[in-house]
Amino acid sequence: MAEVRFGKAVNMALDDALAADPTVILFGEDVAEAGGPFGVTRGLLEKYGDRRVRDTPISEAAIVGAAVGAAMSGLKPIVEIMFMDFVAIAMDAMVNQAAKARFMFGGQCSVPMVLRTPHGGGVNAGPQHSQCLEAWFAHIPGLKVVVPSNPSDANRLLRAAIADPDPIVFVENKAMYSLKGEFDESSEPIEIGKAYVARAGNDVTIVSYGAAVNTALQAADKLASRNISVEVVDLRSIQPWDEEAVLASLSRTHRLVVLHEAVTAFGVGAEIVARMSDIGFDELDAPIKRVGAPFMPTPFAKSLESQYLPNAEDVIAAVEQVLA
Amino acid sequence: MSPAKSDNSVPKSRLLEFYEQMLLVREAENRLSKLFADGEVPGFIHLSVGQEAVCVGVTSALKREDTLASNHRGHGHALSKGVELNSFFLEIMGKEEGICGGRGGSMHVADMSVGMLGANGIVGAGIPLAVGSALAHQVRENGAIAAAFFGDGALAEGVLHESFNLAALWKLPILFVCENNGWSEFSPTDRQFGANVRELAGVFGIPSDYVDGDDVLDVHDAASDLVTAIRAGEGPRVLECVTHRVRGHFEGDSQKYRAEDEMNSLSNHDPIAKLESVISKRRIPKKEVAAIREKIDAKINAAVEAGRAGNAPDFDRAQADVYTAVRGV
Amino acid sequence: MSHVTNLNMPKLGLTMTEGTISEWMISPGASFKKDDVVLVVETEKIANEIEAPADGVLHDILVEAGETVAVGAPLANWDVGAAVMFEAAVEGEDAAATTPEPAKEIAAATTSIEVTKITARGVESKRIIATPLARRIARQNDIDLADISGSGPKGRIKAEDVHAAIAGGTSRAAQSSGVTVTSPDVLPDRRAATSYETAAARRLTEAKRDTPHFYLSTEVDAAALLALRQQLNADNEGLRISVNHLIIAAVARALQENETANCVWRDGEIMTYGTTDIGMAVNTEKGLFAPVLKNIGNFGIASIAEAARELAERARSGQLSSDDLSGGAATISNAGMFDVTYMGSIINPGQSSILGVGSIREIFRPDEDGQPELKQEMGLVLSCDHRIFDGVSGLTFLNSIKANLEKPLRLLVN
């Protein structure tokens, strides 16, 4: 098994998909000649040519709209939105078109497209280049939302996403692009909608996704030295999300902390908490805690941003509260 | 504008074909209007009465494998692209047997089997879909083209400008059809858009044409020329069809905002009356025309009866169809 | 303007979850001055006098003397002026989780009528705060949650409290099965456990269950110890030194020599005491207490004796403060006055060891020539918390105590 960086793992999945299926095409701002703003699509133009790997103008609405139309006409487009913040301009295509085509046309067609986009802070990118907006999409029936937490998952989930017949928002945490991880190239794609127990434990369950899973694992390490045994569940995809797996873990530990980098209020965690307080009510031996960003825009200054982002200490404090 | 064709150059069968198609759209919409008033059609319906020459003239220049993205005023686009009449009525009447299972209704009639990518409830939103569809044709090299139908009300939408730019940059096989009826929903377009669609196309280097959208023969000829260039790989084209909206923005709109003389002059622009006068000049027997009328009436009566006989959609089936069923599940 | 607020059951110690009202010192309607004792609250450990924070008037008494209620539950309403109203309102908020409706009483605190009305409803039916899991386990085991006091935040009953209750036999099923084996006309005598008994039962159950105990035992040759005591008492008429005082001194010195023994496990962290504090089991009419001798590291034997005597006296007269009952890593439980060879004790919650001291016995042991020699021996059992001690560190500590007791002269040298 080799060590691969997160960005390279994504690149390898794109490369495989372009090689395997002539209907897969890739387009977005600066993805071809420049190889992508984070270098994730580097080398693909040279390998697959400018018919299938295309630079677009800075036209988010047209990029995503065209992806939907192409997907309805026999292609499997993969488009990139340079920063997740920019999807605000392309929401109609995702929310009103891609998400609904299958349903409102009576199942006549599906929209097999993938929208890749980086979210997350930690790089001092400020209020319009750091947001975690995945909850917007998870709220829309017809869309799927996948958020990998490590290089291997990024590759295996992206391959599954490209093969999936429905529109998928594939969210990559930009702070993770250079993160290295073990990756077995022969590994299978991961089924979308299935969570993974990243660390087994008995006293409390932390449910998370994306880069925050690593924060949860750090917290679990620290808590282990205090004889607190933490189970970390990596959702991998938040729409659909694996409520059976979360319920199963809660039924073992009876205590739940939900962690994400996104703003806590009205976030993905709110849905998980609501659902578990319903189907998992009798398993709960403590209130469920959420850990996430405060209700404010992502600040720019290093000192502000480091306080803004949820960290292992925040998770530990939440775990202590549910264990009280 | 393309040079006026001698009416005599058009075969009689073509004239009657156009006539039958336009009449089908007209009578279908007239019936929908009545069904809507009678409460048999729920929701919103936006009628294209007065604009039938555009959809028939353009789609007659397209092939079945070509794709078309439409807008909220899309009944004519759907029917002339080949959506089957019974399933069309079943859909708009909200029935399980409708072309979209009763889940879309008037604003979302689609039929992938005839390249109808759907009417659309969002102004301008179908345009980038057609661009994407054209991209698919280009990449797949299948010889097909895409057409985007939009009204002048969509001209101020940014995504139209983005779509023109993208189509021009990538030389996509797409025909942009602007049905210019002068009205952006409830407002005159000259107070909403400072340029015009042909100037806009010119900015992006897209060649365009301009026709009387009430004349189906002109529309067809202009569209055919543009489609030929598009199929030859010359990139996108824009066709502006100046036409007239007889009904309100949607059924129930009393159009108090339109001047009386404008309303009174609408009958002078009726594309079906125009074609009837051509037919009459060609001395085609009246009974042939009458036979077409009867045929259309019979088809629509049958479609309405089919619509009435349709079943209410099943909720569970609808709910289970938000995502593609995973194999083995 | 009147500022009627609730007087709530105060939290008088870190572990206090409920209290019993011993006595109201002020009658309803009577006024009082700042620092007057308003009532006496008995907790698991001690009787506490609750003093008025300001001049005021006591209105209705909601909980009569003799009743036990959770921390935060309203006991009375009183008017102690605007100065403390905010504080009282905050306490009311704290109580929200333990009583019905009182969340509203904060908003209602501005008018005395609403306060009275809402609080009265609160007293009628005490809402039980328990986690969903605790409720489920209680339901499945036929346990009445009203019989359980919670160890969670704001007295919330958690699953472990219900498990403890099941282990302790609060189960109605267990009770009824007990009845069936008893002859119907010779029913066992029953009474409600006192607040002290209930609390002690819970604390001991928790301690035995949550602290991983292990036990080390040895015998101490007490000859030198007894000889020293005799000499000391012969020299000084005013202050009698007991064996127990010498054992305290021996343990104090051993604590100074073994840092591990002065450590405790606290919420996943290891805390080391900087001072030499030793708990001392004292039997009283109310039951067993273990007040702590504080900072006796530099005390001579006479000072230890004096401090121990004074502390025991206060324990017997019910005058211990919460401070007397906190701190220390080790406790000595001396059963020397009874007939016992070895006593393995339960470590007090929050501490890491307890030394059980048996009575001094005469026993023949072989001397160097293998001939029987009469010895006076004392059995020691050190109960250790395995989270702090391992076998080696436990033995080192015990041997250190043993050495100090067998060569007690060193206890006289500071």
CATH architecture of chain B: 3-Layer(aba) Sandwich
Helix content of chain C: 25-40%
The strand count of chain C comes to: 18
Distance between the termini of chain B: 57 Å
Q: Order of strands across the widest beta sheet of chain B?
A: 1-2-3-7-6
Number of helical segments of chain B? 12
CATH architecture of the largest domain in chain C: 2-Layer Sandwich
Enumerate how many helices of chain C there are, as a single number: 11
* CATH fold group of chain B: Rossmann fold
Percent of residues in β-strands of chain C: 15-25%
Mean pLDDT rating of chain B: 94
Write out the CATH superfamily name of the largest domain in chain C: Chloramphenicol acetyltransferase-like domain
What does this structure look like?
The complex is a heterotrimer of chains A (324), B (329) and C (414). With 324 residues, chain A is an alpha/beta fold. Chain A folds into 2 domains: 2-183, Thiamin diphosphate (ThDP)-binding fold, Pyr/PP domains (Rossmann fold, 3-Layer(aba) Sandwich); 196-323, Rossmann fold (3-Layer(aba) Sandwich), CATH 3.40.50. Helix content of chain A is 37%, strand content 20%. The longest helix of chain A is centred in the first third of the chain and has 15 residues, at 6-20. Chain A is globular and about 60 Å long. Chain A starts with a strand and ends with a helix. The mean pLDDT of chain A is 97. Helices cover 45% and strands 9% of the residues of chain B. Chain B has one domain: Rossmann fold, CATH 3.40.50. Chain C has 11 helices and 18 strands. A 6-stranded mixed sheet of chain C has the order 9-18-17-16-12-15, covered by helices on one side. Chain C has a 4-stranded antiparallel sheet with strand order 1-8-6-3. Chain C has a 4-stranded antiparallel sheet with strand order 5-4-2-7, with no helix packed on it.
